Amino acid sequence: MINIPKGTKDVLPKDAYKWHFIEDAARGTAELFNMKEIRTPVFEHTELFLRGVGDTTDIVNKEMYTFKDKGDRSITLKPEGTAGAARSFIENGMGAGLLPVKMYYIIPAFRYERPQAGRLREFHQFGVEVYGAAGPDADAEVIFAAAHFLNKLGIKNVKLNINSIGCKECRARYNAALKDYLRPHLAEMCSTCRERFEKNPLRILDCKEEKCKLVTAGAPKMIDYLCGECKEHFEKVQQLLTAGGLEYTIDPNIVRGLDYYTKTVFEFVSENIGAQGTVCGGGRYDGLIEELGGSHVPAVGFAAGMERLILLMENTGVQFPEECGPDVFLAGMDEESRTAAFGIACKLRSEGISAECDHMGRSLKAQFKYADKIGARHVVALGGNELESGECNVKRMSDGSTEPVKIDGLCAYFKGKK
User: Fold this and answer.
1) pTM of the predicted model, to two decimals?
2) Which of 24, 25, 288, 320 is 20 to 30 A from 69 in CA distance terms?
3) Which are the contacts of 119, defined by CB distance < 8 A and separation ≥ 6?
4) DSSP 229-295
5) Phi, psi of 359 (to 5 degrees)
6) Per residue of the chain (418 residues), what is the pLDDT tens digit?
7) Burial of 148 from C-beta contacts in 10 A (0-12 / 13-18 / 19+)
């Protein structure tokens, strides 16, 4: 038997309704905030992620699924959604149109990492991208969109943490101060942090190793090194969050895992999905479009992992609204009535009424049991008498009541139930 690859998971028909619920909430949120869907390829040229995500990140160094195609081109399955959306923004000249460009995506993404609760090698994201708006109000709106999405799912007790990692100028000053602080402690830190020390010391603050967290606990804070513009931007974001009634905590250790972030960064975190508590994260990335070869275009966005959302919802007892069964199940007593049931089902479906009939040669009693198991709201039993008289009984499964209806009037009857 061929088994599923490690780090992947089937979404079975019995569980698909959970995904539909989250996807519907994502699209509903996007519509409220006037965001339009973008769909980009599952794979891109590897250079896009080297330049966009950053060659000092774990994603690029350790986690990407990269291969050569038949034209000897280096191709990578996308590990996240922002780089592809930014490439599309440039390539399709979106910057020449109305700004801001507000987009969302629901995508599969791929990272080769150790599978754990809510974190797989193939995973799915709902993400939001806003291009062209430089002000703190865009940051706040994106954060509110994330909060609305989580609330729409019924997720409670998540905590919003925010930080600012500044612009290139103030971050350069901070990196120098951070390196001065960390240098005497390098021998106490993990090998990954020692590697990051020269290339990207800011990422050391994101390390989950206890020994490294003990060292960085006393490190200087980025918000103390913000330039005047970045400080003012961050303060205004806080004012807007407060004005909108959204509680937050400033967490100076949030840096996010991708190199393209600038200024505002944020995370919604929960204690109900294990050690990896972030359920949604994002921030501003004003230099990304320029880094990929476009003109300077400010940008801000977020992404939420759908597997982690499902895990969180299950762990906290959030009830998924289950999908309804068919409007009607048509049960046939014999070959003739089964054929009639099939024809009626086809007619009902053409009128927008969900209908099902037996395909397994079950007895009439077994068909009623099956109809109950699949959640059919009504059952119509057809036999010779019904076909001859042109009238049938419609049984409502919720209370067992029946109602006589002309067979040729079934469409009108069930349309009246909508």
Assistant:
1) 0.90
2) 288
3) 113, 276, 305, 307, 308
4) HHHHHHHHHHHHHHHTT---EE-TT---SSTT-EEEEEEEE-SSS-S--EEEEEEE-TTHHHHTTS-
5) -120, 5
6) 899 999 999 999 999 999 999 999 999 999 999 999 999 999 999 999 988 776 556 667 678 999 999 999 999 999 999 999 999 999 999 999 999 999 999 999 999 988 777 679 999 999 999 999 999 999 999 999 999 999 999 998 899 999 999 998 888 898 889 889 989 888 888 988 888 888 788 888 878 788 888 888 888 998 899 999 999 999 999 999 999 999 999 998 887 656 678 899 999 998 776 555 889 999 999 989 999 999 999 999 999 999 999 999 998 899 898 888 999 999 999 999 999 999 999 999 999 999 999 999 999 999 999 999 999 999 999 999 999 999 999 999 999 999 999 999 999 999 987 7
7) middle
